[in-house]
Design brief:
The protein is an alpha+beta fold. Helices cover about 35% and strands about 15% of the residues. It has helices spanning about 1-20, 45-55, 70-85, 115-125, 165-175, and strands at about 30-35, 60-65, 110-115, 145-155.
Protein backbone atom coordinates (compact mmCIF):
# COMPACT_ATOMS: atom_id res chain seq x y z
CA UNK A 1 0.00 0.00 0.00
CA UNK A 2 2.73 2.51 0.94
CA UNK A 3 4.64 1.73 -2.28
CA UNK A 4 1.47 2.57 -4.29
CA UNK A 5 1.17 5.89 -2.43
CA UNK A 6 4.83 6.67 -3.20
CA UNK A 7 4.33 5.92 -6.90
CA UNK A 8 1.19 8.09 -7.08
CA UNK A 9 2.90 10.97 -5.24
CA UNK A 10 5.92 10.77 -7.56
CA UNK A 11 3.64 10.78 -10.62
CA UNK A 12 1.83 13.86 -9.31
CA UNK A 13 5.13 15.62 -8.65
CA UNK A 14 6.32 14.83 -12.20
CA UNK A 15 3.07 16.24 -13.66
CA UNK A 16 3.43 19.37 -11.52
CA UNK A 17 7.07 19.79 -12.59
CA UNK A 18 6.08 19.50 -16.26
CA UNK A 19 3.31 22.09 -15.78
CA UNK A 20 5.72 24.50 -14.03
CA UNK A 21 8.22 24.18 -16.88
CA UNK A 22 5.49 25.22 -19.36
CA UNK A 23 4.42 28.31 -17.39
CA UNK A 24 4.87 31.67 -19.09
CA UNK A 25 7.52 33.88 -17.52
CA UNK A 26 6.80 36.92 -15.42
CA UNK A 27 4.75 39.48 -17.35
CA UNK A 28 6.18 42.45 -15.51
CA UNK A 29 8.94 43.44 -13.14
CA UNK A 30 9.26 46.53 -10.99
CA UNK A 31 12.27 47.45 -8.86
CA UNK A 32 12.40 50.33 -6.42
CA UNK A 33 14.52 51.44 -3.48
CA UNK A 34 13.49 52.77 -0.09
CA UNK A 35 16.15 54.39 2.11
CA UNK A 36 15.66 53.29 5.71
CA UNK A 37 15.86 56.91 6.84
CA UNK A 38 12.57 57.48 4.93
CA UNK A 39 10.82 54.28 6.00
CA UNK A 40 8.86 55.82 8.90
CA UNK A 41 6.95 58.14 6.57
CA UNK A 42 7.01 56.01 3.43
CA UNK A 43 3.88 55.92 1.30
CA UNK A 44 3.71 54.41 -2.16
CA UNK A 45 3.47 57.13 -4.82
CA UNK A 46 0.15 57.18 -6.70
CA UNK A 47 1.72 55.91 -9.93
CA UNK A 48 3.08 52.83 -8.12
CA UNK A 49 -0.28 52.22 -6.48
CA UNK A 50 -1.89 52.19 -9.91
CA UNK A 51 0.78 49.88 -11.34
CA UNK A 52 0.22 47.34 -8.55
CA UNK A 53 -3.53 47.43 -9.21
CA UNK A 54 -2.88 46.41 -12.83
CA UNK A 55 -3.91 42.83 -13.73
CA UNK A 56 -0.23 42.06 -14.45
CA UNK A 57 0.34 42.03 -10.69
CA UNK A 58 -2.67 39.91 -9.65
CA UNK A 59 -0.20 37.22 -8.58
CA UNK A 60 3.34 38.21 -7.72
CA UNK A 61 6.62 37.02 -6.26
CA UNK A 62 8.79 39.62 -4.56
CA UNK A 63 12.19 40.04 -2.92
CA UNK A 64 13.61 42.46 -0.38
CA UNK A 65 17.35 43.00 -0.79
CA UNK A 66 19.51 45.13 1.47
CA UNK A 67 21.16 47.95 -0.44
CA UNK A 68 24.92 48.12 -0.73
CA UNK A 69 26.43 49.22 2.56
CA UNK A 70 23.51 48.07 4.71
CA UNK A 71 24.78 45.78 7.48
CA UNK A 72 22.84 42.53 7.67
CA UNK A 73 24.09 42.03 11.23
CA UNK A 74 22.55 45.35 12.32
CA UNK A 75 19.21 44.35 10.76
CA UNK A 76 19.26 40.97 12.49
CA UNK A 77 20.02 42.65 15.85
CA UNK A 78 17.11 45.13 15.40
CA UNK A 79 14.67 42.41 14.32
CA UNK A 80 15.71 40.32 17.33
CA UNK A 81 14.98 43.28 19.61
CA UNK A 82 11.54 43.70 18.01
CA UNK A 83 10.82 40.02 18.54
CA UNK A 84 11.77 40.40 22.24
CA UNK A 85 8.84 42.80 22.61
CA UNK A 86 6.54 39.77 22.44
CA UNK A 87 6.41 39.91 26.23
CA UNK A 88 5.09 43.49 26.01
CA UNK A 89 1.93 42.91 23.96
CA UNK A 90 1.27 46.63 23.41
CA UNK A 91 4.41 47.19 21.27
CA UNK A 92 4.87 43.73 19.75
CA UNK A 93 4.76 43.26 15.97
CA UNK A 94 4.79 39.79 14.41
CA UNK A 95 7.91 39.24 12.27
CA UNK A 96 9.10 36.31 10.15
CA UNK A 97 11.63 33.99 11.68
CA UNK A 98 15.32 34.76 11.36
CA UNK A 99 16.98 31.94 9.47
CA UNK A 100 19.98 30.31 11.12
CA UNK A 101 22.08 30.42 7.98
CA UNK A 102 22.89 34.04 7.31
CA UNK A 103 26.07 35.87 6.63
CA UNK A 104 27.42 39.18 7.88
CA UNK A 105 27.19 40.73 4.41
CA UNK A 106 24.33 38.68 2.94
CA UNK A 107 22.00 41.02 0.99
CA UNK A 108 18.78 39.01 0.65
CA UNK A 109 16.37 39.93 3.42
CA UNK A 110 13.10 38.24 2.38
CA UNK A 111 11.31 36.35 -0.43
CA UNK A 112 7.53 36.13 -0.67
CA UNK A 113 4.50 35.82 -2.92
CA UNK A 114 1.08 37.40 -2.82
CA UNK A 115 -2.31 37.67 -4.50
CA UNK A 116 -2.56 41.31 -3.40
CA UNK A 117 0.92 42.76 -3.78
CA UNK A 118 0.06 46.35 -2.80
CA UNK A 119 -1.46 45.24 0.53
CA UNK A 120 1.36 42.78 1.20
CA UNK A 121 4.15 45.29 0.54
CA UNK A 122 2.41 47.78 2.85
CA UNK A 123 2.39 45.12 5.58
CA UNK A 124 6.13 44.64 5.12
CA UNK A 125 6.67 48.40 5.33
CA UNK A 126 4.87 48.21 8.69
CA UNK A 127 1.45 49.60 7.81
CA UNK A 128 -0.48 46.41 8.53
CA UNK A 129 -1.97 44.66 11.51
CA UNK A 130 0.39 43.96 14.43
CA UNK A 131 -0.30 40.23 14.23
CA UNK A 132 0.51 39.85 10.51
CA UNK A 133 3.86 38.17 9.95
CA UNK A 134 5.72 40.75 7.87
CA UNK A 135 9.06 42.57 7.93
CA UNK A 136 7.51 45.55 9.79
CA UNK A 137 10.35 47.77 8.49
CA UNK A 138 9.14 51.07 9.92
CA UNK A 139 9.23 49.57 13.42
CA UNK A 140 12.93 48.69 13.43
CA UNK A 141 14.84 49.97 10.39
CA UNK A 142 14.53 53.78 10.48
CA UNK A 143 17.85 54.36 12.25
CA UNK A 144 19.91 51.91 10.17
CA UNK A 145 22.06 53.37 7.42
CA UNK A 146 21.30 52.11 3.92
CA UNK A 147 18.00 50.81 2.68
CA UNK A 148 16.17 48.10 0.84
CA UNK A 149 15.54 47.30 -2.82
CA UNK A 150 12.20 45.69 -3.54
CA UNK A 151 11.73 43.69 -6.73
CA UNK A 152 8.25 42.54 -7.76
CA UNK A 153 7.60 39.99 -10.51
CA UNK A 154 3.99 40.03 -11.72
CA UNK A 155 2.35 36.97 -13.26
CA UNK A 156 -0.95 38.36 -14.52
CA UNK A 157 -4.52 37.44 -13.80
CA UNK A 158 -4.53 33.79 -14.91
CA UNK A 159 -5.80 32.06 -11.77
CA UNK A 160 -4.38 28.72 -12.91
CA UNK A 161 -0.93 30.16 -12.10
CA UNK A 162 -1.86 30.65 -8.46
CA UNK A 163 -1.29 27.01 -7.51
CA UNK A 164 2.31 27.22 -8.77
CA UNK A 165 3.37 30.40 -6.97
CA UNK A 166 4.43 28.53 -3.80
CA UNK A 167 6.79 26.36 -5.88
CA UNK A 168 8.31 29.37 -7.61
CA UNK A 169 8.65 31.26 -4.32
CA UNK A 170 10.21 28.24 -2.63
CA UNK A 171 12.79 27.80 -5.40
CA UNK A 172 13.70 31.49 -5.37
CA UNK A 173 14.12 31.36 -1.58
CA UNK A 174 16.23 28.23 -1.90
CA UNK A 175 18.50 30.01 -4.40
CA UNK A 176 18.75 33.33 -2.51
CA UNK A 177 18.70 32.01 1.09
CA UNK A 178 17.09 35.11 2.64
CA UNK A 179 17.90 36.25 6.16
CA UNK A 180 14.23 36.02 7.18
CA UNK A 181 11.18 33.97 6.30
CA UNK A 182 9.82 30.47 6.61
CA UNK A 183 10.82 28.23 3.70
CA UNK A 184 11.43 24.56 3.05
CA UNK A 185 7.81 23.41 3.32
CA UNK A 186 7.38 21.92 -0.16
Amino acid sequence: MIKDIQIKAADQLRRTANEIERLPGSECQIDFNIPFKNISNFQFPNDQREIFRDKKFDFAIYTFKLSCGTAASECIKKIGALKELKKDKSNYRACPKINRIHRECWPWLYVGSSRNIFRRLNEHIGNGCKSTYALQLRHWASDISGGVQISVYGFGGDSSLLRYLPYLEEQLASDLKPIMGKHGNL
